[in-house]
Amino acid sequence: MTTLADPVPGGLPGDVERATAAAGELSGRGVHGVVLAYVDTAGIGRVKTVPTARLASAAAWGVGMSPVFDTFLANDSIVTTDVLGSPDGDLRLYPDLDQLVVLAGQPGWAWAPVDRVTQDGERHPGCSRTFLRHVVAEAAERHGLAFKAAVEVEWTVARGDAPGDAFVPATTAPAYGAARQVELGDYTADLLAACAAQGLDVEQVHPEYAAGQFEISVGAVDPVAAADRSVLVRQTVRAVAQRHGLRVSFAPAVVGQGVGNGGHVHLSVWRDGVNLHSGGEGRYGMTAGAESFTAGLLAHLPGLTAVTAPSPASYLRLRPSQWAGVFTAWGRETRETALRVVTGTAGLRDQAANLEVKPVDLAANPYLALGCLIAAGLDGLTSSAALPGEITGDPARLTAVEAAARGVRRLPISLEQAVEEFRADEPLRAALGPVLADAVIAVRLGELESVAGLDDDQVAAAYRWKY
User: Fold this and answer.
1) Which residues cross the membrane (predicted)?
2) What is the distance between the alpha carbons of residues 130 and 153, in angstroms, rounded to a whole number?
């Protein structure tokens, strides 16, 4: 069992040998530096980089990074808590050599996600990647469960020559339109080539609904790797765009009104190689375990939004009738419910059936989001929670009486409401542990204070180029 207290000794000979061999191979391929990547509580990707020749040292002893980044805001301000936000102390960043990849979109660079470890060799309790790994390991040990996950990545493509921080779409062609694909075909072709060179199995890339918007989907893998992939995909999307003179945003909302960028999560639960979302006696082939897992997610969704929709800009996206999933409801292939049961095509359902969680955007730290989603589902599975009735159509059309009778609630309409729901969700906070839960609350409140008094357009502008 992996625990937050497991030591990570420095100077592991195997890691040094692997890293030395990897550094030699990277140098032979013209790689000069390695990006060591992690995501902070605000959902911002942070990095340190080392020359390729220093990779072995990084693998053996880590690279220094202050723990203060646990309480950085998206605008780089710092909030403090009783245990975080101090200028004191240091952590070590240890690259995961299993995920080391040459960046095809950034010639001369390689990339690896990191685990954050104290100088005494213990897992840092604020490391979100360690948290996710711990949740997955606990599910395997206590319940015999494994998971497959994937994070959809939506982004808007803007002209790189627009003045200042203005947003000017790189294309005004129709949503899902052939014209948009043609106009930005060179860019997306290079993006596909870069993903393939990096071993990312892209399932589709296509124009999306909003102005200048695209979406890319990759195959489902274990949750830690899925979160790693989400970070790597965004690094690649941005790098390739820059080489084409374009600018991209993964922010939940780039303008005050309209459809924003989502980061929908696809998640399936497995036991002994069998998909619990298929072949069961429950609704649409779900097993009893899959139904209870889904019920757990539904029950915790209000508090989960503080993790999955963590920015003030998130609530510009989370609006009814925009396929954002803003009601505590589920349905088969229902894109207006928060949880969409995906059965897959006949003949592939034993592999393809999964659950799509819609109120998630790319301001979310993917490690925190996946870990909390799994923890919420496990809470329902452990208690054998009953899954309520399915909702079809748009839940926004239900009257207040109908919604109450069917247990359908509107998710928080502001980050402030989401924080209050998170405070009240003791199982969710317990799963995160006191350090991470404290950081989530402090950073969310800091983000709220940073945009106090701003209107919707100003809030969107404040985060437009942060993600």
Assistant:
1) none
2) 23
DSSP 36: E
Which amino acid is present at 59? A
Q: How far apart are the C-alpha atoms of 362 and 249, rounded to whole Å?
A: 10
Rounded average pLDDT over 235-252: 97
pLDDT value of position 6: 42
Token pair, residue 46, equals: 């942070």
CA distance 121 to 6: 8
* Secondary structure element (H or E) that encloses residue 237, with its range: helix 223-243
* The pair of three-digit structure tokens given for residue 366, joined into one six-digit string: 């993917």
Cβ 444 vs Cβ 435: under 8 Å: no
pTM of the model: 0.95
DSSP 8-state class, residue 99: G
Contact 224, 132 (CB under 8 A): yes
- pLDDT tens-digit map of 179-200: 999 999 999 999 999 999 999 9
Residue for token digits 């129709």? 174
Cβ–Cβ contacts within 10 Å for residue 67, how many? Answer: 22
